[in-house]
Design goal:
Blueprint (H helix, E strand, L loop, with lengths): L2 H4 L19 H7 L41 H13 L4 E5 L2 H12 L5 E5 L4 H13 L3 E5 L7 H4 L4 E7 L11 H10 L3 E5 L4 H4 L9 E5 L13 E5 L1 H14 L5 H11 L2 H20 L4 E5 L9 H7 L6 E6 L2 H11 L4 E2 L9 E3 L11 H7 L6 E4 L5 H16 L2
Parallel strand pairs: 2-3, 2-4, 4-5, 5-6, 10-11
Antiparallel strand pairs: 1-7, 6-7, 8-9, 9-12, 11-12
Helix pairs in contact: 2-3, 3-10, 4-9, 11-15, 13-15
């Protein structure tokens, strides 16, 4: 077995208890990685250790004290082992939200006076963090066209410390030049950070491609059931130790019950994501052929500008797509009201198909001019394909589209 297959499976889950086995395939890691050996009390399912504090046993460091906020209790460490294994990593830490993972990581990697390069089309919460909070902390940010490597060097500064991208951008489904990002970061001594939420480790494992740190909003696909908010940071043991220490001070730990739910959701990750990817491709094809649809953004379609790159880099694409109707925002709102199967709600990655208009939800915090500059129109609809039968989803979308002809 190669090194990538061995890393991430030796998670500590209690004093003197370690994983005794490694696993080769992602499906097996999703079920078994992180589970302590021997199993606590013989339990087949990892128990919830619902205790904020644990007995002192002579730990020599503050960060080694067994305490819930310090992210080292048995339920937490078992989850960390599974997260690391799925991304072929040495270590991982779960956080109280995806934004906690992003903000804590950036505040670990960057300091006042530093400079960050970031992809120009990102999740709205990330964009707002970069343009408001980091600015107040004296950290400068420049946005790059992640599809144009020739332009990156012009924005490079002596104090540039890191570069930040999304595997598949939210909500326009762009696939950056990920190989170019790694090469650029390595040649200029930058820390490379990537939000892998849309792709998941089922479709792309950034550490295997040379990225330094991987971030997830575990609220989405990794949990997959729309019932918790959580995040994760995955990478080398050295980086995760630094990030965990910062997280310990900022207080963004994940509670035991949410850890348990996330661990449970991860067991079906591979099955869910592959089903959702297949559904998203079929739905994208159907929408693209409909006369009332102006544009579909899905890297699995040959019409997508980064289709060849997506096929080369990704093992699957995503259960996410976005599209625009003829008629703009008014047509989009009317269409969503006419659907009966999808739920009109923000977020993504759960069992239920969701529709949302990013201009008024996930990217509402961006200035209208910034949204338009990056290609996010007021009428753009983002769709998270769920686990329902694909034919049934398409039938409902088509009836909503066709009804709009006569409206």
């Amino acid at each position: 077995m190669d090194a990538a297959g061995r890393r991430g499976d030796a998670a500590v889950a209690g004093e003197g208890i370690v994983m005794a086995r490694t696993f080769k395939h992602l499906e097996t890691k999703a079920v078994h990685a992180g589970v302590p050996s021997p199993r606590p009390g013989g339990a087949v399912i990892m128990p919830i250790f619902q205790s904020a504090m644990f007995e002192f046993t002579g730990e020599g460091s503050y960060h080694d004290l067994k305490y819930l906020r310090l992210n080292n209790t048995p339920t937490q460490t078992a989850l960390h082992g599974k997260l690391a294994a799925l991304e072929s990593a040495e270590a991982a830490v779960a956080t109280s939200s995806g934004m906690a993972a992003i903000s804590t990581t950036l505040l670990t990697v960057l300091a006042p006076g530093d400079h960050l390069l970031a992809q120009d089309c990102l999740y709205g919460g990330t964009h707002d963090l970069l343009t408001t909070e980091l600015k107040h902390l004296g950290i400068a940010v420049d946005f790059i066209d992640a599809d144009d490597p020739s332009s990156w060097t012009r924005l490079l500064r002596a104090n540039t410390r890191a570069i930040y991208v999304e595997t598949i951008s939210n909500p326009l489904m762009r696939v950056p030049d990920l190989e170019g990002i790694v090469t650029f970061a390595t040649s200029h001594g930058l820390v490379s950070l990537i939000d892998n939420t849309f792709a998941t480790p089922v479709n792309f494992r950034p550490l295997e491609r040379g990225f330094d740190l991987v971030l997830h909003s575990c609220t989405k696909y990794l949990n997959g059931h729309s019932d918790i908010v959580a995040g994760a940071v995955v990478g080398s043991k050295a980086w995760i130790e630094r990030i965990t220490h910062r997280l310990n001070h900022l207080g963004g730990s994940l509670d035991p019950h949410a850890c348990f739910l996330l661990d449970r959701g991860l067991k079906t990750l591979v099955l869910r994501v592959r089903h959702q990817c297949a559904g998203a491709l079929a739905i994208s094809r159907g929408l693209e052929a409909h006369p009332r649809v102006e544009k579909v953004n899905y890297p699995g379609l040959p019409s997508h500008p980064q289709h060849a790159r997506a096929r080369s880099l990704l093992e699957g694409v995503s259960g996410m797509l976005s599209f625009e109707l003829r008629g703009g925002a008014a047509a989009a709102d009317a269409f969503m009201r006419r659907t009966t199967l999808p739920i009109v709600a923000p977020s993504l990655g759960g069992a239920e198909t969701l529709l949302t208009r990013p201009a008024v939800t996930s990217h509402a915090g961006m200035a209208p001019a910034d949204r338009l500059r990056t290609g996010i129109t007021d009428g753009l609809i983002r769709m998270s394909v769920g686990l329902e039968a694909c034919d049934e989803i398409l039938d409902d979308l088509f009836q909503a589209l066709d009804a709009g002809r006569d409206a």
